Amino acid sequence: MKRLIFASIIALFSYSGYSQICGSLIVSTIPEEPTATDEITLTVKFTCPEYEQWGVEDIYLWVWTDKTDQPSGLPDMFPGADDVQPLNGLGDQAWKNSNPYLKMEKIGDNTYQYVFTPTIMFKLNPSDLRSMGFLCKPKDGGGYGDPDMKTEDQELVFKSLTFIEDLGRTFPATVSANDIITIYFNQKIADDATFAAYTGNLLLTIRPYVDNTPAGPEMVFSATKTMNGNIPEHKVTLLPNEHLDLSNLSEGQKVNKLIYYFHNQLKTLKSEEFTKILIDLK
Amino acid sequence: MKKILIYISIFTLAFSLLYSCKPEELKPVGDPFDKVELMVGTWNVNRVIQVDVEATLKGYPLYARELDITNVFPDNSYTDLSITLNSDKSFTLVKGNAYVNWPLSGTWDLNNPDHPSKLYLILQLDTLSLNFSSFSELMMSPAKLVISETKKQKVDDKYIDAIYYNYEISKP
Predict the structure, then answer these.
(1) Is the pTM of this model over 0.90?
(2) Distance from A172 to chain B by nearest Cα, in Å?
(3) How many CA atoms lie within 13 A of B68 on its CB side?
(4) Mean per-residue pLDDT, A114-122
């Protein structure tokens, strides 16, 4: 029994000496709280003895997400290069041969940097990219009978994209003259104190344009008021090609701009003018 | 007596094991549902949802992602809309006052009869392509489907999805 315990202790010590996993590193990003669409500068400083044991200058990233375990969009990060593989490592023993396009730049003692945009690197939409995992390693990360050389797994959590509601916003944001467009006026975000206190109904005056030339006269629509708590929100839904007077439109021309503002009946209260560029959608 | 009981027990155990190991005959699964046949009939529009694709991809709140436009114009409700797909692959569309630019008649087809993802409405050289969602409610009564018209924006040399008009349709 004593022999067995002794052998186990020896085996445990041997194993811990065999593996060279770095558990002590300082990770920072610019911006500090990135979203998945931000260009992120990732900086890693090694403060572990294993880094010295690796005995290498070049350090590589190894990345993954919940949706993919490879940097599927890596070729898009280097459009000028034609040899970029969308992989963490190359060949049959990928762990022993990191992708050269994931090499981090050494910027100081034990300190490395890599710049990337998550949505591009992983070819994922922000809604599918809440966080990512990464580790750092030498080009040859060991394994296959050699000591494993890597950092512990790290996680970058991305801040959600925030919807910023503009005054006079439209739904959808990208729209053509042949699509249904809803124009909103949320009094909660109106700068004007008089507007913020107004409780009555509003009207929308709108005019279609081809570039800077009016394609028809101004038209007035009653806005529908809905209460968002105590604060009214007004909206008008219309189909520009159907509901606006396009009498000045020449043949072959298309309305590509709307200019509009909200106001009360007597126009004693009037918002700023908003401009909506219409896109040609197929 | 004890021995006889033991032999009976062993025999019973062996028999049950042997029987339980008998391969089970699989019943035939039958022919797959004929999707073309299931599409035939008159489909009525129940609801239309307009979807801002970019807002959806960015995970914005629901009110910034989609809008129910079914009755947004009370005199031009989308529930006026119905489409009859005939077994000879002809179709007729009843628009009522709804604002749609779909052909009123022509021929229809599926992009793949076994695993369709698109319904084509064809009028001479023009083809309107409508995307399907799940077929899970196609065999139910009433049968339900969501067909989607996509508006695309040209960005550089590519066309990207900008707006979806999702039509929730059903047939008795």
Answers:
(1) no
(2) 5
(3) 8
(4) 96
